[in-house]
Write a structure and sequence with these properties.
By secondary structure, the chain is an all-beta fold. 0% of the residues lie in helices and 50% in strands. The chain has strands at residues 3-7, 10-12, 18-25, 33-39, 45-51, 58-60, 68-73, 78-83, 92-99, 110-113, 117-121. Strands 2, 4, 5, 6, 9, 10 and 11 form a 7-stranded mixed β-sheet that branches. A 4-stranded antiparallel β-sheet has the order 1-3-8-7, with no helix packed on it. The radius of gyration is 13 Å and the shape is globular.
């Protein structure tokens, strides 16, 4: 069955960096767009970034553009999110998701999610 397992979260000071990973199994990883979304306490899920099948096309929310980088290694069935210059407002539970179709810059079309990895940014 489809499994998505996130890791790499933690606590960091403002300005710091973290690299999230998402290990995928149970489906043809290279055939799907993949996404990162996040949910801050008391808020709904927010789309963060999308990446195309082979990784050549990437998309970012304005709030993270220039600071976050999404990538995928199809040989390792793994999705990544490099997060630099972290801000307190980046504090959230971060999820990776499998996207059906190619509609980007939205959480629509996501059919499987992981359990999430927590990111806390504070001084």
């Amino acid at each position: 069955q489809v499994q998505l397992v996130e890791s790499g979260g933690g606590s960091v000071q403002p300005g710091g960096s973290l690299r999230l990973s998402c290990a995928a199994s149970g489906f043809a990883f290279s055939s799907y767009y993949m996404s990162w979304v996040r949910q801050a306490p008391g808020k709904g899920r927010e789309w963060v970034s999308d990446i195309s099948w082979g990784g050549s096309s990437t998309y970012y929310a304005d709030s993270v553009k220039g600071r976050f980088t999404i990538s995928k290694d199809n040989a390792k069935n793994t999705l990544y999110l490099q997060m630099n210059s972290l801000k307190p407002e980046d504090t959230a539970l971060y999820y990776c998701g499998r996207k059906v179709g190619v509609r980007v810059e939205t959480t629509e079309g996501l059919d499987y999610w992981g359990q999430g990895t927590q990111v806390n940014v504070s001084s």
